[in-house]
Amino acid sequence: MAPKIATFFLRFLLLCSAGVWAQAYDPSKQLSVGIILFPGFQPLDVIGPLDIIMMLSASHNISLAMIGKEEGIVPGPSPPRRNEPPTAYPVRGPSIVATHSFVDAPKLDILLAPGGMGLRVLDENKDTWIQDFIASRYDELQYLVSVCTGAASLAQSGVLKGRRATTNKASWAWATQFGEGVNWVPTARWTEDGKVWTSSGVSAGIDMTYALFKRLMGAEAANRIMNAIEYTPHLNEHWDPFSLVHKVPGADASQQLGECVGPAGFEFKCS
Ligand SMILES: *[C@@H]1O[C@H](CO)[C@@H](O)[C@H](O)[C@H]1NC(C)=O
């Protein structure tokens, strides 16, 4: 009996502390969000989460810093790879404007590291500004989040030591070579380990961002955004058919490839 009661109280305490986190957003204090940018960023890694953040900022006190190596235009297409043949055709992509350099970026509550081909170029050129920036800001952050191969930047910064993390399953071998003692999770749409959240490839960042802001700002606000952008989020962080598609070592072969999704906040059935 005693262990049962103890378990009950532990659960109760965990729920309460989760509740405290859920109310962590305080309108009288601005939530300071930063997004890292580099040439060759994956557009949706940035724009997917940003669409949710932009819409939430209409009703919540949020500031946004787009953080590049330098302030100004950050090209969408990646610079050429050092050790790879060029692509058949030049890659086209949208440029984006960094409002801050990493040197003058404001104090941050949430820092998002996106993925993209440009990270490989930075690595080939031994340019460590992103990982150094993450390491220097880690302690002040409420949440450090990555999308896709952005997890490689987290690993390189050293903050994933002893933590669970995931990344794009199509780039698994490349991204997971970085970091020491990282508990890479082969089958996960996203992972949460303390203040570090990481998502799988590109579109998974939208599901993770929804889960994170639902935690921070409540289901009503987060669901309203999902339904406004007409996106049906995956709610199950363990759903990850791309771990099988891309034959990730250790992937959960027993999982269903398909998963039922529907509008956020509604009951639905899939047949
Ligand atoms: C938003 O946060 C800033 C900074 O903490 C604060 O000065 C301002 O009053 C807040 N705005 C509102 C509408 O609460």
Q: How are the elements arranged and paired?
A:
Layout: H1 2-22, E1 31-36, H2 43-56, E2 62-68, E3 72-74, E4 96-98, E5 100-101, E6 110-113, H3 118-124, H4 129-137, E7 143-146, H5 150-157, E8 164-165, H6 172-175, E9 183-184, E10 190-193, E11 196-199, H7 204-217, H8 219-228, H9 242-245
Parallel strand pairs: 1-2, 1-6, 2-5, 6-7, 7-11, 8-9
Antiparallel strand pairs: 3-4, 10-11
**Strand segment tally:** 11
Which series of helices and strands comes N to C? Answer: HEHEEEEEHHEHEHEEEHHH
% residues in beta strands: 15-25%
* Global mean pLDDT: 92
Q: Which small-molecule ligands are present, each listed once?
A: 2-acetamido-2-deoxy-beta-D-glucopyranose
Determine Rg (CA atoms, Å): 19 Å
Q: Order of strands in the sheet with the most strands? A: 5-2-1-6-7-11-10
Major sheet details: 7 strands, mixed
Query: Which bin fits the share of residues in helices?
Result: 25-40%
Low-confidence stretches: 10-23
Alpha plus pi helix count: 9
Shape: globular
SSE class? alpha/beta
First CA to last CA: what distance?
42 Å
